[in-house]
Amino acid sequence: MAASRAGVSDRYTPVAILLHWLMALGILALAVIGLTMTRPSTPPGLMFKLYQLHKSIGITVLLVAFLRLAWRLANQPPALPDTMPVLEQKASGAAHVALYGFLFGLPISGWALVSASVFNIPTVLFGMVPWPHLPVLSTLPDKAPVEAVLKSVHNYGAWTLLALITLHAAAAFRHHLILRDGVLLRMLPTRRRPQPESANAMEPRRS
Amino acid sequence: MIFSRKRTASLALGAALSTAALAGATHAFAADWKIDPAQSTLGFSGVQTGARFAGKFKRYNAVIAFDPAHPEAAHVTVTVDLASAATGDAQRDTALPGKDWLDVAQYPQAKFTSSSIRRTGAKSFEAAGTLTIRGVSRPATLPFTLDINGPAAHAKGHLDLIRTAFGVGQGAWASGQWVALQVGVDVDVVARRSN
């Protein structure tokens, strides 16, 4: 899909790089917090705080996901190398579509779960910004069965996203260590400021 | 002459004043008292996931008729605007007025009406009455100390309640697993004679 643009812009834009790594950090934190807060042995005070933090970070990731999608649509990502087989390029495209889907779907499933919770705990992002429950779910007469379903969805969704991220990271390392085609480097921050020419080259192009 | 007339006048005035003061003293304490909100606190406390928290009601009203010499004739009615509860935690304060907790949409006020007040010590009293929270009325007794200093009186008392006796904490909150069932009410008010 992007072979004709090869060599034109070989890196993601600094904004795309920043959003990618911010989100990576957020997801890592969410996974660690999520696994800790659901352990029955976690002390209740800590458990409660971790849930609130998990909700705050999760909603932040959802908001950043919108930013990312908007940026991605306005700024075409760099082309994959010509050396990549078409099938791999297609697989890469599908994996990225799936990753994007989870960046929205998983936080929304968590939001839905919080809204349908029998505890009906208000969300206040980082203890400061009130965040509403989703309509309908928060006013169900019998929340428990809906909450149970959403809990499973969020739980299995989280493990699926972690599996996808593992695949994503493994592919990046394969490109870097085995194929040595520089694909990983496109998403790493660089200290050098881009030259004006390359800045021009980053303008979106459509093949 | 003038001097002595003045003196007589001042004596008469003094006599009149002291008579008035004495007359006032006999039923001064039988008077009504008005709470000074600036110096008063109606607080509450609880324990959430093992950690104590405290808050207060910003709006409440009291009708107090009290004579320490005749506490049996006293009568106190306190109404509390439950929506004014604040604990300084945005999340807790969002949850508190909700349906599971105080349900202020349905029951905007809590009310205490004394039925009998008796002296239990030199400066201590006990107000027995009915406490209504969230539409549930139960007998409650508030022990309090009272310091009267001229026109002002300082009353201090503490009352422990079981929140679920009033339906505060519904559904998943009806157990003490996350929020302890026992909550404290702290009364610390300064009242002034209003007549």
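Confidence is low (pLDDT under 50) at residues 1-29 of chain B.
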